[in-house]
Write a structure and sequence with these properties.
Order of helices and strands: EEEEH
Shape: extended
Strand order of the largest sheet: 1-2
Number of domains: 1
Number of helices: 1
Largest sheet: 2 strands, antiparallel
Radius of gyration: 16 Å
Oligomer: single chain
Distance between the termini: 6 Å
């Protein structure tokens, strides 16, 4: 299954997130690794959260893809669920 979140802006690629549910398992190596997702029972880290992703940057040639990072504020799980209605979490089916 492929689930693409509503709200994706095709012009500037904001909110461009997709979740894949694979039929078969993936062989992990140095280039392919799982992305650990937080659990409600996880202890929150005290340091800042950082999000990163690959893509063009407006200050650099559009042909060049760069890794960008941004620091974000953490929020409580229940607040995150209210803000991101429709995002599946543990126990929900991805359609």
């Amino acid at each position: 299954y492929l689930r693409i979140e509503n709200g994706t802006n095709k012009r500037n690629h904001s909110n461009d997130i997709a979740v894949l549910h694979l039929k078969y398992s993936v062989a992990y190596d140095d280039h392919t690794k799982p992305l650990p997702l937080s659990n409600v029972k996880d202890k929150l880290a005290t340091e800042d959260c950082v999000v990163s992703g690959w893509g063009p940057h407006r200050s650099i040639s559009r042909r060049r893809v760069v890794l960008s990072t941004v620091r974000i504020d953490r929020m409580k799980f229940n607040l995150a669920m209210k803000l991101y209605i429709g995002v599946p979490f543990k126990g929900q089916e991805i359609i």
